[in-house]
Amino acid sequence: MTDVKAARDYVDIRIATYNIHRCRGMDRRTVPSRIAEVIRELNADVVALQEVIGAGPTGAGQAEEIGAALGMGWVMASVRQLRRHQFGNVVLSRLPIVHHSQYDLSWRTCESRACQRADLDVGGGQQLHLYNVHLGTAVLERRYQATRLAAFVHDRRITGTKVILGDFNEWMRGLATNTLTALFESVNIYEHLKRRRTYPGIFPVVHLDHIYYEGEVEVRSVELVRSRRALIASDHLPLVADLRVGVR
């Protein structure tokens, strides 16, 4: 387990974003335990997951299975039903989750989307606000969602450091990316990695997964995990960042 090192004015936190593709791997097998092992290898304190199947009439769902396997707390934001099971985003955390909510990002007749917010207790009476998102596939849909997402994050009633991460579904720099990079700081993987593309996992050609932030954050390192297991477990690769977060 990564140490969350408390100092007088900061904490070090290892975070990750990972679209697990319903736990269906590139070999077409659905194996939640394999996804759990990939996440275990990340050694992250907090993980934002997208495309997770939750509870339903035939079982507890992938979120509970993965959380139990890792011994991590978790919360789920369901956006729709998938074969009568919940389906959406999940935040896994070793840190206490003190608040959880979600914001609607659905646009017109497109598939339902939402932003999941989890507030984490990082010690010293401070919270880190995590926004886990999975934007839509249409250009105008993403532009609407990026603007709406920014409005939610900029709610002045929510103070402290904020991290926005997930699958932004932008195959090239476009309207959503331009909106978000103008409003937030971005974890620029071009400064840290030789391999920068995250999708599809085995032969990635585009960079869909991003991390943005607002507040006092120092990006210590960034890692795109390409282990043998990760290359097969999902069609995305996990993106991991070590952050030093101010808590003054």
List keywords for this structure.
38% strand, 248 residues, alpha+beta, 5 helices, 6-stranded mixed beta sheet, globular
CATH topology: Deoxyribonuclease I, Chain A
Strand content: 35-45%
Cross-sheet strand order for the largest sheet: 3-4-2-1-12-11
Number of domains: 1
In short:
This protein is α+β, with helices and mostly antiparallel strands and 248 residues long. It has one domain: Endonuclease/exonuclease/phosphatase (Deoxyribonuclease I, Chain A). The protein is 20% helix and 38% strand.
Structure description:
- This protein is of the alpha+beta class.
- It has one domain: Endonuclease/exonuclease/phosphatase (Deoxyribonuclease I, Chain A, 4-Layer Sandwich), CATH 3.60.10.10.
- Helix content is 20%, strand content 38%.
- The chain is built from 5 helices and 12 strands.
- The strands form 2 sheets. A 6-stranded mixed beta sheet has the order 3-4-2-1-12-11, with helices on one face.
- The longest helix has 15 residues, at 139-153.
- It is globular, with a radius of gyration of 17 Å.
- The two termini are 25 Å apart.
- The mean pLDDT is 89.
